[in-house]
Amino acid sequence: MAEAIQQLVLDTLAKEGEIKDTRTLILPGYKEPAATHDSQIIILGALNSLSSRDMITYTTQETVSHVLTQEGAQIALQGSHEARVWAACPKKGEGAPIPPKQLQEKVGAETAKVGQGQAFKNKWIGKEGDGLVKLVETITDTTQLQMREVDSTGALKAGEKALAELRKRKLVAQRKGQWFTVRKGANFSTSTAKPETDLTVDMLTSGSWKTATYKKYNFEADGIPPIGGALHPLLKVREEIRNIFLEMGFAEMPTSSFVESGFWCFDALFVPQQHPAREVQDTFYLSDPAESLPPPKDYYERVSKVHEHGGYGSTGYRAPWSHEESRKLLLRTHTTASSASMLYKLAARCRGEEDDSEETIKREGAHASSTVPGAGKAGPDGFRPAKLFSIDRVFRNETMDATHLAEFHQVEGVVADKNLTLADLIGFMRVFFTKMGITNIRFKPAYNPYTEPSLEIFAFHPQLSKWVEVGNSGMFRPEMLEPMGFPKDVHVHGWGISLERPTMIRYGINNIRTLVGHKVSLESVERSPAVRF
Ligand code: PHE
Predict the structure, then answer these.
(1) Rounded to the nearest whole angstrom, what is the distance from the C-alpha of residue 413 to the centroid of ligand 1?
(2) Which terminal residue of the chain, N or C, has fewer Cβ atoms less than 10 Å from its own Cβ?
(3) Can you give the pTM of this predicted structure?
């Protein structure tokens, strides 16, 4: 259709030199000229396409015409309200006058109400007793005639005053329209063949390139967006959280050891060897190699002793110590395993040991080093205060569902200093979560084998309008810190939160599988906006 109209415009121009008024065109498949609003819209499409190729030029003429409203259309079809009232009344002297109630039933409440007044005024009907009768034999329903005229011509011969009256009565409405005057353009031709966009080998060998028309370069066109890498939403949120830690003076712990031993993941944290978290349904164990390298000997002995027999003011668990349990290799179930080994290194000088050199750290990784990033100056007892954080992956042998995967990310922080109190931990939490955009938080006493007291952190979720758990925290126990070599007045508090939960809230995701795993759409990753807390 579009092509055919373009052809019609070109042919008409070729024949007549100019199209003065596009309302005179007879579109393909029609008998009448294209006078209607819709047909001019279709013509405009063809004109725009032709003028973009400079084949024609055109000017636009605005028109105002009238169309019927819904009520106007009903009058055109059934007559005015007064005519319908008149028609419903019996002739004077022929039959019983119609009571108003019966009239209402016959023509409808609205027509009876509006029509009666006007029919009386026109002297078409009159009262007889309690009813109404016709006073005249025939009527001329001017309103209906006007509606029919507007419907077919868009105007009234009677002129603007009569139209204004009909507009006031809401029987007709104005409609802006347009029509066009068309002239030949610089590239006028009667062929609508699309201009070439490429010079091809075929065109060169056949010689058709000489006569072909070419599409002009459009230097204003937008370029194709380059395809580049995009950060996954989790990484964007990780970056924001990392910035919060850095601006609060924390240093990042090395956390590359996904595989840990039972010793560092549990024993060093004073998690009893019979603790349910250690069972295979909660923890992934390695079969090859199945055993870890031995942990530092003296420390290992102190840890096994505090578990089995107690010490440092604790009675311990008084259960037999299993060397095998301690040496098992596993996928770490929390990043607190890394925190434990970092704290052990932080206590190196308290034990009278030296720091390792930067080279040793580089060569042998985190575990080999007793240098702790960002640690403060050592006091006379060798203790160095430190604020450490990590954001990395952990693994749990869980049943997967919409909010649980077998691997996820933990955000973890530890602060080691002299005489820290629970008030320091709570105050710190408030600052940290406020920086994450979470201002309404509450604490609930909880239990962790390695902290006492322990606090779960709840935040009010405005969308869910309920309190949701956002983290877990506590003061590390002396049974954990003192075997490492820390003096008694050194207190360490720590907390952990998940990275996935704030990310899902941030991006309005309610199924974790749309965020992590093989079902993630790369497109959504590319489109996901940056995050600012
Ligand atoms: N490891 C705890 C968890 O996995 C978080 C935590 C870290 C709690 C440090 C207290 C201290 O939930």
Answers:
(1) 9
(2) N
(3) 0.59
**Residue 458 CA, ligand 1 centroid: distance in Å:** 14
What phi, psi does 117 have (nearest 5°)? -55, -50
Residue nearest to atom 8 of ligand 1 (CA): 473
Prior bond of 289 cis (ω within 30°):
yes
What are the residue boundaries of the structural domains of the chain, listed by start?
1-66+172-184, 70-161, 235-527
Q: How many angstroms separate the alpha carbon of residue 473 from the centre of ligand 1? A: 6
Q: Is 195 left (phi over 0), alpha (psi -120 to 50) or beta?
A: beta
Can you tell me which atom of ligand 1 is nearest the CA of 335? 1
Please determine, for residue 369, whether its predicted confidence score (pLDDT) is greater than 80: no
Give the pLDDT confidence score for residue 48 in this predicted structure: 94
Architecture of domain 1-66+172-184: Orthogonal Bundle (1.10)
Instruction: State which ligand 1 atom lies nearest to the alpha carbon of 410.
Output: 4
Any atom of ligand 1 within 6 Å of the Cβ of 412: yes
How far, in Å, is the centroid of ligand 1 from the Cα of 50? 70
Ligand 1 centroid to 393 CA: how many Å?
14
Q: How far apart are CA 1 and CA 247, in angstroms?
A: 65
The average confidence (pLDDT) of the chain is 90
Question: What is the tens place of the pLDDT at every residue in 439-469?
Answer: 889 999 999 999 999 999 998 877 778 888 8
CATH 3.30.565.10 describes domain 235-527? no
Fold agreement (1-66+172-184, 235-527):
no
Closest residue (by CA) to atom 5 of ligand 1?
496
Q: Which ligand 1 atom is the nearest neighbour of the CA of 473?
A: 10
Rounded distance from Cα 450 to ligand 1 centre (Å): 9
φ/ψ bin of 310: left (φ > 0), alpha (ψ from -120 to 50), beta (otherwise): left
Whether 498 lines ligand 1, by a CB cut-off of 6 Å, is: no
DSSP 8-state assignment for residue 195 = P
Q: What b/e string do you get for 473-494 counting C-beta neighbours within 10 Å, with b at 16 or more?
A: bbbbbbbbbbbbbbeeebbbbb
More confident residue, 367 or 396: 396
**213-241, pLDDT tens digit by residue?**
888 888 998 988 877 888 899 999 999 99
- Between 9 and 507, where is the model more confident? 9
- Closest ligand 1 atom to the C-alpha of 476? 11
Cα 352 from Cα 371, distance rounded (Å): 14
Q: What CATH code is assigned to 70-161? A: 1.10.10
